[in-house]
Amino acid sequence: MIELSGIGPGPFCGMILADHGADVISIDKPTPGSLPLPAMAGRGRRSVILDLKSDPGRAIALDLIAGADALIEGYRPGVAERLGLGPLECSAVNERLVYGRMTGWGQDGPLSQTAGHDLDYIAMAGALGAMGGDRPLPPLNLVGDYGGGGLLLAFGVVAAVLEARASGKGRVVDAAMVDGAALLMAPIYELAASGFWSGARGANILDGGAPFYDTYVGSDGGFIAVAALEPQFYSALLEGLGLLDEDLPAQYDTSGWPTLRRVFTDCFAARSRDEWVATFAGSDACVAPVLSLAEAPVHPANVARSVFLDVGGVLAPGPAPRFSGVPRRAPKPPPARGADTNEILLELGLSADRIGTLRAAGAVG
After folding, report:
1. Interatomic CA distance for residues 132 and 200, integer angstroms
2. Which of 226, 265, 305, 312 is spaced 20 to 30 Å from 217 by Cα?
3. What contacts 328, CB < 8 A, 6 or more positions away?
4. How far is CA 312 from CA 39, 146, 159, 276, in A?
């Protein structure tokens, strides 16, 4: 797979595919971007530096594309075409190529040429408006960039590659983050259509409105997550809190939720986070500690499953999902920009002298 280097969801898509065995070649620009971006999404790749605005650099890119199953790019619509690397030019050298396109607003529509970021896309999808309390709160950039963006692009690319192997014809995959974020909200839209979801934030079963699906603070300031939705789990929660025999409002009587919240808040405030973790150990109350970024990689449950792996000296989330018969190994760390330029160009059949000439001309890095 060829990746025209970018930021956010495009590299995340490439990371997922590389994690699962794809040979991903990232075509990087001669000069790095201005944003200080995390490098971990670049793991598992090989990197070649090409000046795609030069004729020789573009020609080498097309040579790489000619032998690829897929290409992904995250430019604004029309930019790849202006570089001479749009779907038409690429399919001319490889009719089986799957061309994955990652944008915020899609390849067409009134906003297609407008700049934006994750927060804008999830705002327009209705997702952001459903999160938070007095005002909508950004859920990091997980919903637009990664869940609705890179993850769905990876799914679309794999689906199209499977089709191309059967049909011999590639396809363009138009992955827009506003589309993906809206798709992730499908169950919530269904609840709203059925009358089980109000338009108010923090008043519903999954947005912190339900006192049995929320977080509470312990005596040490640590937080505890409670997600006791089903009656049997709710009963286990009450038992752990010492409230099983108390006269409390019914679990799903929304008029009693303020009372339940006050009772739960007072209970949890009486002990530290880890004391509550010990209390609920082995219970089906659906109670878990809210771990920090430093705590999560070393939590015994995560260690037992190797959720986090050492990737070039950094504890990072490992590949997911898992497949039977495939050992869980750490991905290769992100390469230095252009680290594999010579190797890749030699694989294309260019001589060392030719590579030197291209490098002197600035066409390759």
Report:
1. 10
2. 305
3. 306, 309, 318, 319, 322
4. 11, 22, 31, 36
Structure tokens at 134: 């007095």
3-class state of residue 215 by DSSP: strand
Question: Given strand 223-227, what is the order of strands in its sheet?
Answer: 213-217, 223-227, 287-289
Where helices occur in 168-256 by DSSP H, the ranges are 177-184, 186-193, 231-241
Tell me the pLDDT tens digit for each residue of 181-207. Answer: 999 999 999 999 999 999 899 999 999
Active-site residue set: 117, 145
3-state secondary structure 55-77: HHHHHHHHHHHHCCCEEEECCCC
pLDDT at 34 over 90: no
Q: What does the alpha-carbon distance between residue 330 and residue 306 come to, in Å, rounded to a whole number?
A: 10
Number of residues in the chain: 365
